[in-house]
Amino acid sequence: MDVWECRKRPRLDQCRRHDLEGAFRLVADYLVQPDSDNDQRLLRESSVDRLRFLQPLAAVCHSWRRAVLPLLYQTAACSIKELPRHNSSTTTLGVGQDYLNHVQRTNLDLIVSGGYQKYVRRLAIDLAGDVSPDQPITLLTEAGFGRASWPKIKRLRLSHWHGQSHNKDVYSVESLARLNAYLLHTVPKLTSIKYISSDDRRHYSEFPLDGLLSSMLSRLTDVRITSGLVPDMCSSAFLPRLVSLTLRSPIYAGAAHLPRIFAETLKHLHIGFSSTESIWGRFYVADDAQTVQFKQLKSLVLEYSEAIDDERRAARAQKENRLYGDSDSADVDMDDSLYTYYSDDSSHKLGVTVQSPSGKRARPVFSKLQHLSIHKYPFSISRVLRHFQLDCVPHISIRDIRKGWDSLDAAMVSEMSSLRVHVEQAFESRKEEQRYQVWVNRLFSVSSRLTNLHLQASTTMPLALPDVIGLTRLVTLSFSMRVDLCTIPNLLSRLTHLRHLAMHIFPRMNMSSLRSLGVLESGDYDILADLPPLSCSLQHLVAYIGLEPDCGYARRLADDEGNDDPLEIERELTWLMARIPSLETLKTEEWTSGGVSVCIGELMACGEIHPYVKHLGSLEVSVWKY
What does pTM read for this prediction? Predict the structure, then answer.
């Protein structure tokens, strides 16, 4: 977990106590629309099942009930799940012979009978197993969905987990057309669609919601698709208002590309499940030599699929060459075969590249890009970054990469203002980990415009920072790895603009490390009066103490008596904070906060040094719960 995520994520304890509706809304939105990457357990449950977690809140008191009841009805949910088939006779559930061996659940009966349509904001359809497109139509119709008016439903979520139903026939095109027509008729004001089904290619001959996407009646502004199929986004697709598009589906021969109209309206674009050879193929059509300018795009996410071997790469490149009419050798990496080109009037534009000097095919231009995120790139990261004018992209995030991070050189970093680098897996050898240490030292030594830096990696040894720090403009710094606490004083003294620091602290149980910070026995408080402040800018500190199997810190966690005597590492951390007069908040683990609080009390009780540590008296210590 990124130790700085706690600063970004909304939490219930951040809401005002009287704002119950706002607090409960956070819970309701998370339950109905969990994160597709990190919450697989919730995603596998139907929306009806997830909403039940709100019910206990309504039983607490009248004010809680009044706040939570509208949220229970914000989502009209229906779920159809196929039961496992057995040779013996099974219990018949559902309606009609066609729906034997299915469980059907919905809250529509309660909504319609109680007249709660005015609260409903979204429609959620969850399908599991062998469920044809006609079955949700039948369930919705029988529950009275078609007879009622739903003026405020603007969001649709459709998920279908096919599971082990490998031998089922492909669902008919006619049934898909009926589903699309039904949704267009009953919820005509849809502005957002989220579709999730990574295993649907075996069961559909076309993308299930093509009818909604291509309808001229569509008002869609937000489309998020995770699918084994590619939607039909040909030139006839309308979607004139589309602002946000997430397309996580594999590209293959014959797949459609982004219509040019999207370049006029899109502000957020997430392209996923594509290879390095094909991902740029989303942005242009065959034999298209014109530059595509995304005039409004502010956020771009490029999510790559796993790397393939040379034989498969060559075959795929040949297929791409036939599709786009390229003449380059198929065994050349697509990113290497393209180079950057800037026209005379494009100094403010980003990423214009062409296939050859003849200008046969051009890369897209992102003139207003603010956020660039690259996920799972399997090669040297510089190959993809060189297609962007880095000094014009304020925020750059490189996530879930396994190699190629060391190609991020000083020249690239010097142009950036915000950088996040997440190395996905643990280093395979001590040599590779040492190489990462060298790269971090080189990164910190660069004179750069960086104001925000987030580093995440799995290291076995604590990270040591260099004596020479070039990133003097940093405002936010986050280490999701263990850091040698002895290197922090030098870091703080050189980063005069730093306001936020998050780190994992490696416990060094030896007196040399304590003396290096001026920390002696618990009675030697007067030395603080002679030590200069380390930072007058740092306001927020997030600190976690790494655990060693045999250290006293780990033993305390197993101590049932809950001994709160401060450990040396906690005392060391407290004395570090004592030399930061600007510090306002500390966030740490529950077991660490106790020891730190004791140390703060000891310092505050010493009258001689109280003027030097009085800021600790107002320090807000909070606990981050995983």
Answer: 0.77
Give one DSSP letter per residue of 365-428, joined into a string.
EETT--EEEEE---S-THHHHTTS-GGG-SEEEEEEE-S-GGG--HHHHTT-SEEEEEE-S--S
Query: What are the residues facing 473 on neighbouring strands?
Result: none
Contact present, 343 and 352 (Cβ < 8 Å): yes
**Nearest 10 degrees: Cα torsion 9, 11, 16, 17:** 180
Nearest to 99 by CA among 117, 112, 80, 86: 80
Report the alpha-carbon distance of residue 304 to residue 377 in Å, rounded: 6
3-state secondary structure of 38: coil
CA-wise closest residue to 276 among 310, 227, 247, 325 = 310
Cβ 609 vs Cβ 603: under 8 Å = yes
Residue 567: alpha-carbon gap to chain centroid: 36
Query: Which single residue is written with the structure tokens 């009805």?
Result: 73
pLDDT in tens, 179-224: 999 999 999 999 999 999 877 888 888 899 999 988 888 889 999 9
Give the HSE-up count for residue 228: Cα atoms under 13 Å, Cβ half-sphere. Answer: 12
Q: Are 434 and 459 in contact (CB under 8 A)?
A: no
* CB neighbour class for 18 (10 Å; exposed up to 12, middle 13-18, buried from 19): exposed
Alpha-carbon separation of residue 179 from 97, 161, 212, 511 (angstroms): 20, 17, 9, 71
3-class state of residue 623 by DSSP: strand
Sole residue written with tokens 């040894």: 461
- State the Cα–Cα distance between residues 451 and 419, nearest whole angstrom: 9
Split at pLDDT 50, 70, 90, the class of 466 is confident
Band of residue 481 on the pLDDT scale cut at 50, 70, 90: confident
What tokens appear for 429 in the block? 């050898």
Write out the two tokens for 614: 């009085």
> What are the tens digits of pLDDT across the range 251-305?
665 555 777 788 889 999 999 887 777 777 777 654 555 678 898 999 999 998 8
Kind and range of the H or E element at 258?
Answer: none
DSSP letters spanning 116-167: -GGG--EEEEEEESS--THHHHHHHHHTTTTTS--TT--EEEEEEE-TT-TT
Instruction: Please give the single-letter amino acid code of residue 115.
Output: G
Provide the pLDDT confidence category of residue 484 given band limits of 50, 70 and 90. Answer: confident
CA angle 119, 125, 128 (to 5 degrees): 150
Per residue in 561-617, pLDDT tens? 455 577 888 888 998 999 999 999 999 988 888 889 998 988 888 877 778 888 999
Place of tokens 């800018």: 537
Q: Which amino acid is at 508?
A: R
Token pair, residue 231, equals 């939607």
Tell me which residue has tokens 């957002």: 192
Local confidence band at 330 (pLDDT 50, 70, 90 cut-offs): very low
Q: Which helix (H) or strand (E) holds 197?
A: strand 192-197
Tell me the two tokens of residue 209. 């919601």
Least confident of 21-25, 104-108, 258-262, 299-303: 21-25
